[in-house]
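[09:14] KT: can someone run the structure on this one? pasting the chain below
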Amino acid sequence: MTKFRPKYITFDCYGTLTNFQMAEAAQKIYGGQLDPARMAQFVKNFAAYRLDEILGDWKPYNEVLHNAVERTCRRNGVAFRAEDARSIYETVPSWGPHRDVPAGLAKVAKEIPLVILSNAMNEQIMHNVEKLGAPFHAVFTAQQANAYKPRFKAFEYMFDMLGCNPEDVLHCSSSFRYDLMSAYDLGIKHKVWVNRGHEPANPYYEYTEIKDISGLPGVVGL
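[09:31] RB: done, structure tokens below
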């Protein structure tokens, strides 16, 4: 993919733009109870249960986290407290961007409308978006779509709201499992993988790789 100029650049937010700190939040609560190896396993299980919790019908993200924390605690032999899960949920609005994000976004925002499609709650997302340092044409949430990514319904809601087709956008994410696999299946031909180290490369899904958002302007010829 070389210098494609889309109608919109669409983004995943948490992990791609916002520094996703769910593991750190869990470490703060449970690190005193678990040795490093067990804590690493706890974090791995926690990520897996969060994904499993969003694959069905939509439910509020505080319930997603409550259930995921409870299941992770049970699997790892740790006492579960509802207030711990709530405290993790309440940290989300405080998260800021990766250091490379504001300058890279600001450059492309001058030429191409930016859009976020996030597995977020309406009450939280704008606290994070306001820290990104660039204007966004639209911000869509799982709560609005009544579905979480990687479900197609979330992406289809975004297309309907923008009045565009998959081939009109460039979708940018650091995650294959949440974004780029579904984007591929839905016919989004232009995809960017931001290699934040969350997941291994998978060239099957036909993307352009960048190490961070500073590389995005070059993808669209800016």
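[09:33] KT: thanks! Residues 8-19+96-219 form a domain with the Rossmann fold fold (CATH 3.40.50.1000).
[09:34] RB: yep, looked fine to me
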